[in-house]
């Protein structure tokens, strides 16, 4: 090829390479959900490549901590289980503030006022029960009644992040508080492990009632399992799988597009397709779930929950006699 033609061809290629965007995502989503999220984003943004790593939130935070210590932070974006973790990172200056235009479609309680993180879905905690029971609870208070003694199982806040958020929410609620947890303990409520163990115990009839995240019960019900689910009248606690941009991101434009996509109508339709309650107002819930507007969310302050986490665990351990 003549040199002039080679240079002309190179001139066409180089701008394309230079303009290519990419980002690295760390997520605690299940693998299938993570792949769907990345594929949908890339379809909507064909010029952006996404490298992603999937693991549990605790392990991802340990990995990020090691990277920070080594001065080689890899991710541009985090999509993890709860706002409390991201609130801690925001307070430490690890997150970038970004005011997404999509935030107007969300309740202010579901995102950081300064733009450090945004909720992408609602995973609420309510009451699961085995359909063989005669008495169906309608409130959190029902689980502490004498007739429920020895019949209730719940995940431990010493093990489950969602359970710790549930603890912070209910202990801060008028009419419940720490007295409620004392009543549960006195009622021989079993608190151990995570949500998976609770579901198995109730579905198998080992315990008639349990405290559980919504999708586990409602998906199983749709598949014929002998369980049903109650959204208690006092309201529900919730985790929201928030998204955030790292302060040290070198691909902020691509990261901002990723955040906007997750919060957009298309991104929230994807959440529904995965079988979760959307965080965005005006988007219909999955089949079998109540409408978003009909779900009463209890008040929750991520900053307070973060500050109180160790004290809450210690007090819970004391009440339930856990060493």
UniProtKB/TrEMBL annotation:
A single MF term (Gene Ontology): metal ion binding
What residue range is the signal peptide? 1-20
Instruction: Name the InterPro entries for this protein.
Output: Ferric-bd (IPR026045), SBP (IPR006059)
Q: Does the keyword Signal apply?
A: yes
A GO cellular-component term linked to this record:
outer membrane-bounded periplasmic space
SUPFAM superfamilies recorded: Periplasmic binding protein-like II (SSF53850)
Keywords from UniProt, A to Z, are: Iron, Metal-binding, Signal
Binding annotation for Fe cation = 215
GO BP annotations of the record are:
thiamine transport
Q: Is-annotated flag, keyword Cell inner membrane?
A: no
Q: Which PANTHER family match?
A: ABC TRANSPORTER SUBSTRATE-BINDING PROTEIN (PTHR30006:SF2), THIAMINE-BINDING PERIPLASMIC PROTEIN-RELATED (PTHR30006)
Q: What is this protein called?
A: ABC transporter substrate-binding protein
User: What organism is this sequence from?
Assistant: Paenirhodobacter enshiensis
């Amino acid at each position: 090829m003549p040199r002039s033609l080679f240079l002309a061809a190179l001139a066409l290629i180089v701008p394309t390479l230079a303009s290519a965007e990419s980002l690295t995502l760390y997520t605690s989503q299940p693998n299938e959900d993570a792949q769907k999220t990345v594929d949908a984003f890339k379809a909507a943004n064909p010029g952006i490549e996404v490298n992603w790593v999937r693991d549990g939130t605790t392990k991802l935070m340990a990995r990020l901590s090691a990277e920070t210590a080594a001065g080689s932070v890899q991710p541009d974006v985090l999509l993890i289980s709860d706002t409390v973790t991201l609130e801690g990172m925001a307070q430490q200056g690890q997150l970038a503030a970004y005011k997404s235009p999509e935030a107007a479609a969300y309740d202010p309680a579901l995102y950081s006022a300064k733009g450090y993180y945004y909720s992408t879905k609602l995973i609420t905690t309510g009451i699961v029960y085995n359909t063989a029971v005669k008495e169906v609870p309608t409130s959190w208070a029902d689980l502490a009644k004498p007739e429920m003694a020895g019949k209730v199982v719940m995940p431990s806040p010493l093990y489950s992040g969602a359970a710790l958020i549930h603890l912070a929410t209910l202990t801060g609620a008028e009419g419940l508080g720490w007295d409620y947890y004392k009543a549960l303990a006195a009622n021989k409520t079993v608190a151990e492990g995570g949500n998976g163990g609770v579901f198995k115990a109730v579905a198998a009839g080992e315990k008639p009632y349990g405290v559980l995240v919504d999708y586990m019960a409602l998906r199983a019900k749709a598949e014929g399992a002998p369980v049903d689910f109650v959204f208690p009248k006092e309201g529900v606690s919730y985790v929201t799988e928030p998204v955030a941009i790292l302060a040290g991101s070198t691909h902020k434009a691509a990261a901002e597009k990723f955040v906007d996509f997750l919060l957009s109508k298309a991104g929230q339709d994807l959440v529904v397709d995965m079988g979760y309650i959307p965080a965005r107002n005006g988007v219909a819930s999955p089949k079998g779930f109540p409408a978003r507007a009909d779900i009463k969310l209890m008040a929750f302050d991520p900053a307070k929950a973060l500050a109180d986490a160790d004290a809450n665990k210690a007090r819970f351990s004391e009440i339930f006699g856990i060493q």
